[in-house]
Write a structure and sequence with these properties.
about 150 residues, alpha+beta, six-stranded mixed beta sheet
């Protein structure tokens, strides 16, 4: 009986350590997969929202997400209408919540004031209150009490 309990304990510890190692690998993969044109200074990003063109970019699958004829399109490149849009200079908002495009009207309204801003990127992050990288005193949008 003692041997069974000891083996069960060892297996439990090994499984717990393996789970922690997998979580660390997941974070490292995200850091490496962020596009070159993304804002710097973020340790983790799910989505970028580009208010200029009302398009999302999903970092894990490297896909743009945009609305076309009432349907959400997932593509590895921007739609033809935005083929000349410069993702390097346009404003990007980091959004770390599941499927933010389903609440597109919220983000469209919230970040409308950043349309047309070029090369003025600051730390803008919408984390739904679940990220440790920002202080509640700074506000959810990285702009002090403004956002």
């Amino acid at each position: 009986m003692k041997k069974i309990l000891l083996i069960a304990t060892i297996l439990f510890i090994a499984a717990t350590n393996n789970t922690q190692a997998q979580v660390k690998v997941g974070v490292n993969i995200n850091i490496g997969s962020q596009p070159e044109w993304g804002p710097v200074g973020y340790d983790y990003v799910d989505y970028y929202y580009m208010p200029d063109i009302d398009v999302y970019y999903y970092v894990p699958s490297r896909q743009y997400i945009y609305l076309s004829n009432g349907r959400w399109i997932f593509a590895t490149s921007l739609p033809v209408a935005y083929r000349h849009y410069n993702v390097y200079s346009g404003y990007k908002v980091v959004i770390n919540e599941p499927k933010p495009y389903l609440r597109g009207n919220v983000f469209r309204e919230r970040y409308a004031r950043y349309k047309g801003k070029r090369n003025e990127q600051v730390c803008i992050r919408h984390d739904n209150g679940n990220h440790n990288g920002w202080s509640k005193n700074e506000g959810k949008h990285g702009h002090g009490k403004k956002g």
